[in-house]
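INFO worker-7 received task bundle
INFO bundle size: 2
INFO processing item 0
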Amino acid sequence: MNFIKKFAKEISVFGLVLVIFLGLFIYRQATFKDYKTVSQNELTQMVKDKKDFVVVLGDSTDSTVASYQDIMTTYTTKNRSTPFYYLDTSEIDDIDSYVEETFDTNVTYPVTFIIKDGKVTAKKEGYNQYYSLYDFIHENFE
């Protein structure tokens, strides 16, 4: 009989720990959102499909872009409704001709594009602080 009581007590403690971890996991999923990294083909298809979104193009090996990725994560976590994407240009051989063909513009990197109906409505070149990025997107996307 003591064995059953001891076993039931251990199961209830395990259940309580499991519920706490499950609650923390659900909380993180509800409060954290990250930007989505897309491939060159996916980005081209989204433009052809005339979607509305924000995309950042930059080389992930560059220290400026690496710190900008933290700003992008903060923005997407606080503004979950904005479709936000990132294209890593380090994997593309001729990024300048791709950008010229796809977006009909020349840029320096990193660059943030606002795309509406498959067309560039605004662009901002270079590194942005959080509030600069926030203002840029809310002035041009909303």
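INFO item 0 finished
INFO processing item 1
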Amino acid sequence: MNVPEDLKYTKDHEWIKIEGDVATIGITDFAQGELGDIVYVEVETLDETLGAESVFGTVEAVKTVSDLFMPLTGKIIALNEILEDAPETVNEDAYGLGWMIKIKLSDTSEINNLLDAQAYLSLVTG
């Protein structure tokens, strides 16, 4: 299982890449594997400021639909438009081209609430 050391994670299986006051967010390799073939990603919250734990969209797989949760409070400033025509990119490259949103952070101290790679690996491997 791929769990890059340079990212942060949530118990809801999102990954977060922090660059200054901007965070790129997607779902983990574990999550995309559990979901199976992803057929649709819906995010209708562009330009909205949402609190941590708020739902920012959904990901639809062949078998299920799952909510996507904000790992940090912030304003959604970008959507990954590749996913509109190619949602399977999340399956193929979860930590690269399969990112979902970028947010401008409202409170960088919230980063301390995220899991590091070891803690996330412990969560999913039990």
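INFO item 1 finished
INFO post-check item 1: The chain has one domain: 22-121.
INFO post-check item 1: The chain is about 20% helix and 35% strand.
INFO worker-7 idle
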